[in-house]
Methylthioribose-1-phosphate isomerase
Amino acid sequence: MKVETLRWSHNQLEMIDQRILPAAFEYVSYDSASSVAEGIRSMVVRGAPAIGVAAAYGVALEALRLQSESMADFNIGMDAGFSTLAASRPTAVNLFWALARMRGVWESVAEQSSATVAQRLLAEAHEVLAEDIRINKAMGAYGAALLPDGARVLTHCNAGALATAGWGTALGVFRSAVEAGKNISVIADETRPFLQGARLTAWEMVQENIPVTLITDNMAGYMMAQGEVDAVVVGTDRVAANGDVANKIGTYMVAVLARRHDIPFYVACPLSTIDMSIASGASIPIEERSEDEVKGFRETHWAAEGVTIRNPAFDVTPAELVTGLITERGVILCPDAPKLRELFR
Ligand code: MRU
């Protein structure tokens, strides 16, 4: 099944509602920057590359919405749209990467009519989407070569087609390995509290007929100690210039366990997720989400009333625990600052 996480239809952006998967499969329509920002904030769309693609369409939608305004009002409205999108979520750098790219395109045609600007921005958003799938497939080929036939691979969160425009980063590696004829089985961490592993990764792998076993997050150490994990592959929301990796909360714990058990720990990472402006993971902004997500799930709450709750949505894995970054330009083993500088030269 081809998963179209985001699609352009009837002059609107449609996104699969990832809050309700797998119980229901529904698209939600968007027609402005503020509505797309709300879709990102509320997790209708999530996953770093998908957030970037959504933001690109948010900019294009805003231009289409404002194209009959005076040039002055168009410019003011567009600036506001960029700011609203930038404030939607803080950690995934793909959001800011996509907004910078769209602003560059806007500036390059700013002298032209608003309608022309809007069409140019829409064409760029389509290109960001198509490029994301091409990049995932390139990463998939490099990553697949790292996995031996028969590998049992643990992943955390959802870095699949649902987290991108299609194919996926970490799950793209599994798809590419299977396409290359390898027997791969996946161990999916449930990924508390939003359950991206149980709901989204498990759903994607089941759709794809790739064998998948679901475990709760606190079972990863046991599985590794039993010799049931051959490799770990995860995605990332932002990689600092020294190779430190921010990803879904719990990834750091998996990386420490993998090192303890001599299991390779790979991070599938498009170049758009590397933030060379940030020296180390210590400076990556970590989103804190609502305490309701930890209290329980949806309407069901099980935590004791009155308890203090923390809900950091991401953590940082130091570069020293990363066996390799799988990028669209190849695999960077033992990533560090000089290797990442070289990658962008
Ligand atoms: O909070 P989420 O669901 O947006 O977090 C997603 C992740 O942590 C993914 O692993 C990451 O964005 C990489 S997606 C290819």
